[in-house]
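Cross-check.
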Amino acid sequence: MTTMRLLITGITGFVGSHMAEYALAQGAAVFGSARWRSRTENIDHLRGKVQLVDCDLRDSASVRRLLATSSPTHVIHLAAHSFVGSSWHTPAETVSNNTMGQVNLLEVIREMKTAPRFLVIGTSEEYGLVHPDEVPVKETNPLRPLSPYAVSKVAQDMMGFQYFQSYGLPIMRSRAFNHEGPRRGEVFVTSNFAKQVAEIEAGLREPVVFVGDLKPRRDYSDVRDIVRGYWTLLEHGEPGEVYNLCSGRSWLIQEVLDFYLRESRVKDIAVKTDPARMRPSDVMILEGDPSKIAKLGWKVEIPFERTLGDLLEYWRHRISP
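Predicted model, tokenized:
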């Protein structure tokens, strides 16, 4: 059996590092694109096991070198500006970066003798404005994006469909709902809460957790489950199709905060709303239906309480004096 040659764009990121770990455990040869200024702490423990290729996905010549060097049988395109909050401040850069990188990849792949199986990474944020009677959200739900980031992901999603239809490329599309775990960036709410609590425990800040809107509901999964789902789609997904990756239940952000306050070694922590953490508009509920990908044998296995606990331990370890 031929060894999978997997190219992971954005390998130095949160999901990319977990994807690399899982792929290596499955026996794949793993290549990753990284820009020269990319921080590598997420994959430093994988040095010598993965091959990094310096590449700016916005430059077509650079992308051509990336694909020539890696000669992938499979590609998972994770590289993106991925934080909803910052996309409000840099909408043009977010949309341009996220669409241009994928265009360049697919244009070079069109020229390859044998096109690799390609997984487009979408997001539940594409669904955006979800009405109560549309929950749980299926893949057929209308796309009503409510942030520049979500708009860029709709563009990537539809681009994948177009390249499949127009050129017959073996492209699968995913829409992963929120996923968390160790190495999650501190700008994301679950990680931010965990970091604040860990800093309070270490005596590095006053016993106050700053929050934004606590009323939205999100369908959370563990990143280690999500990368298993991506692997399932790379191997068995139907080209042209789109798949939700989710748990099928949702948590109030308030419930996430309550978990961390219960688990904290410091009691009587105050909670204060920070106006800077409020968004111009927000998706109030995202709860998905995973039944389509379940037919391929995938489901969430890690309880979200364990995910939150692991994330808290990650931050305790990082900031311990």
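The CA atoms of residues 261 and 267 lie 7 Å apart. Residues 185-218+249-286+302-319 form a domain with the UDP-galactose 4-epimerase; domain 1 fold (CATH 3.90.25.10). Passed to J.P. for a second look.
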